[in-house]
Amino acid sequence: xxxTVVVIASLLILSAFLGVxxxxxxxxxxxxxxxxxxxxxxxxxxxxxxxxxxSVTFDFRGFxxxxxxxxxxxxxxxxxxxxRKMQAGEDHEDE
Amino acid sequence: xxxxxxxxxxVVLTFIGLVTVLMKRNLxxxxxxxxxxxxxxxxxxxxxxxxxxxVAPIFTLAPSDLMVLPTPQALTLTSIxxxxxxxxxxxxxxxxxxxxYGTVDINEIRRLQG
Amino acid sequence: xxxxxxxxxxxxxxxxxxxxFAAFICPAVGRISTTARNVWxxxxxxxxxxxxxxxxxxxxxxxxxxxxxxxxxxxxAVPLDSGGxxxxxxxxxxxxxAFMDIICAIAGVSVxxxxxxxxxxxxxxEGYYALFLLMITGVFGMVSTGDIFNFFVFLxxxxxxxxxxxxxxxxxxxxxxxxxxxxxxxTLGAILILFAIGIYYGQYNALNIAMIAQRMQFTxxxxxxxxFLVAALxxxxxxxxxxxWTPDAYSMAPASVTAFLVVASQAxxxxxxxxxxxxxxxxxxxxxxxWIIIILxxxxxxxxxxxxxxxxxxxxxxxxxxxxxxxxxxxxxxxGLAVLGNAALTSAFGFTAMEGGIFHIFNHAMYKGLLFLTxxxxxxxxxxxxxxxxxxxxxxxxxxxxxxxxGALAIAGIPPLNGFxxxxxxxxxVYLFNPIxxxxxxxxxxxxxxxxxxxxxxxxxxxxxxxxxxxxxxPLPMLIGMGILAAIVILFGLFPQPVVDMLVAPAAHALADQxxxxxxxxxxx
Amino acid sequence: MSRIVRTAADIIxxxxxxxxxxxVAHGHLTPGGGFQGGAVIATGxxxxxxxxxxxxxxxxxxxxxxxxxxxxxxxGFIGVALLAFAFGQVFFFNxxxxxxxxxxxxxxxxxxAGDLNTGGxxxxxxxxxxxxxxxxxTLVILYMLSAFSTEKEVS
Lengths: 95, 114, 525, 155
Hints:
The complex is a heterotetramer of chains A (95), B (114), C (525) and D (155).
Chain A (H helix, E strand, L loop, with lengths): L1 H23 L9 H14 L4 H9 L1 H21 L13
Helix pairs in contact in A: 2-3, 3-4
Chain B lengths: L4 H19 L3 H22 L22 H31 L13
Chain D lengths: L2 H23 L8 H18 L2 H7 L2 H20 L39 H25 L9
């Protein structure tokens, strides 16, 4: 019972918040575009790529992409660790 | 004129995702709820960057100079890859738990107390 | 350009690049031999720590350091043709970030040293060390970055690496269960953070923290984003309404990982402070938000300590104490925030409260890490974590016992150890703000002392138990790891004033000074 | 799976790999890039795993090779970025752009037909990331399948 109340309350709060966001922002007309206009105007000359998504992903925000590859690496290593073949006695209930 | 339909879709998707995460007891369904939430946030980011009438920000033989904002697309790409990694890890956890406990019901996966 | 110049200029990049590179190579090095892998991991960690200290020294002597990834010069935050906006990812290391970097470096070195022998019995260690280095990278990145989306990426690196490493000992499924709980909550928090980032981006078309702060108008949307960020980060740092992942994850992870998870949750705490102080600062209604943080802190303190007292599992008990100690940091900084708009009160006790809270971050990382490491050493030797089954270990594990006493007295705030130094600052300043809060804090301290006296008694005192007659002292690398932390606990307890003057006060002032942060990135003001 | 499915998978697999490599290589000109291309190739791997059984596939797809691929991809990515230090530049500086060497043809502003020999270090990073995603995603599938079969582990 208590759980249901918490669930409904959190649902309503989050939806109301996002509803306000949805009503305040306007689709198709961003308020400010100066950073992206810079990318579109100078991206070709500074990175040599026609695809501005790629130029943002790999050059202007390349460090994020390194982090993103690292996240994938984390997941692979994590999956490898929990499916590893364990020695006898390594998978103990206690300790 | 699309009005704010994409943003409203974001709210609806968030609602569906949250209901799934909070109400369902099957671990796999909870993961699906998380994936729906991730789709909602990705849609939110992409919609933020849309400029009415804009084309994809790729200059190779582009039909027009008016382009949508590229940054949200880069952010969404990052967020999608993180979502894939998350799903892989949660699914592996669910597999191990199923092997050890014989169930993926979160009410029965509660051996840690306190 | 000499080599020294190169290191100093590129220190922020190397801080993240070295552990990342080491982690990527780690699975390959692990195939050569165990020794090669240990040397590789330890060498990378020492190198990273050295870079962190060089960077911190630069920051504390000559002010905030910025590093622009991919620009034509490392400090060219605003390109000449951009019209005054930063466009690339910028690392902004002000004294507060440098302070957190130092904590992470010290904790990383000692904990990694400890895990060289504590984990040596297990398989697939190259994966374990790779994830450990990635956790360290995540913390360094989170505390150094000046870009809010980059913060999110490092937060995700930290979450995934921690989840993988918490599940490392399957423990018949229990560790996986703890990791799952932690990870699902982290993911939900990350989604909230991403929504907040989207809201900022949609309004201000900026991702740089300084740029958002400069354009901040505190509209209704910004309030919503603030709620999202505070909820997500308070959950990540284990404050009370969302603390239930903490005891599970802390108790099921390997001991060395637990000691580092303390630092990781403090990186989330740093994120919370950064959001409140740098993104919003006085545009907030400081009193209301300050009181919210204070109430979170008081709840964490009281609930944490009352849940800790009846626990029978030694690591679970310590985990609840970690929740309780997080409350002190929230209390100190929350009081500083509540009086931020008022210059007279801020100089009277606001800064002291913030310094106390920030100093407590450092002290907590040290003594809590030490306590978790001693618990790990005990479990490593006797193979059980149940307090009722322990006893009489003081005869055989003398050094561990001494380290445990140091940590326990520090967490209870007994002079002359470092916990006392920071708690005293919190008591004094909070008493001026509201006496009831200070009294609650002192009562919680006394309860903490009582709880640790009980643990000490049941673990170390009493006659030698026959089943533990053959128990030996912990191995040398584990003792070195604990020794580093214990030495710092004592040193900072004996000489708190120089530390406060040199490290803590600049950090507190940098945190409160929003204009300085913006000016250091964007130039001018 | 039946013989028809297996034969079809055999025929389609090389095309999927080539299409993925195309997406990776043209990442700086057309929609796509390292992640997308890598994911396409990993789909080909998944197709083969579905068409055959895990026990058969395990002999062809070695976990060691895939892990090596992933590590090489990541090290290549961070190595390309670190190489900027050798040119006396900042981490992640695009030192190859407009240098006249490999991938160094300058690109002026405006709509154009696109030239493969542009992009600075972006194509190199695309290849590194493509390599990493290919190895990583296939490896995740293999590890998950290994949990179902008990006799032999992914090495």
